[in-house]
Amino acid sequence: MQQSVESLVRLLESYRGRDKVIRTVCYGSQLVGGFLSRKAEADVSSHRLGRSLLLFSAQLSQCRTVLRLFDDLSMLSYSHSYGFGAEEEDAGVRWISVLTNVADQLYYPCEHIAWAADAELIKVKSDKWWLFSTVLWGVSLLLGIFRSFRILLLKKKQLRRCTGEGRLLNFGTFPSFLKPCHDKLLCRQMRGEVLSVLSSMADLSNAIHWMPPGFLWAGQFPNWLVGLMGSISSVIGLIQMDTGSWF
Length: 247
Hints:
mainly alpha
């Protein structure tokens, strides 16, 4: 019990860890609140609790938006260090990553302007800026899915090659100093990419929901479904923070 509490404390002491916890609680509250608020006719008290949880979720979402006001420099630093991905061996992964960084970098100022407009700090309409930020978020998620699929394809080929080399080594075809690749490591990396795809797809479904009406299923998700998709993505994010302990 004490070890679990200490792990949670360490998680909350880091900015990224705290953001992931807040995100998980935010979407979890929306999931439960969405379910309870639908029981208006059956149970008034449950409906009241559901509405309270939805308001709590909205406040946590606003909290994360404010905290992201300070993410521009860290994102710029990451984009600068990655550059054009000279260290990436695969050109497809490299350029997808570069485009993802561009979309992520542009996302922050668009969201900041939208937030400032809603807070009446600047005199512009926030609707179009929220739309720009949602589109950029969706583009980033879609590119992330493509990147993960590309990496999975490359890892699968590498795993086949390593497995083949391992069989050849067993027959003594290769010199003794050659060793087969780490199959377990490759499989763990592939499982990590699969989780990334599932997380991005869950978030992308919500991003489409927040697009203007008429675009696919925009505006058609009930609160509980938005909460469910966000909770799936958030839990995966928490798992990925400690990949070594889960795979």
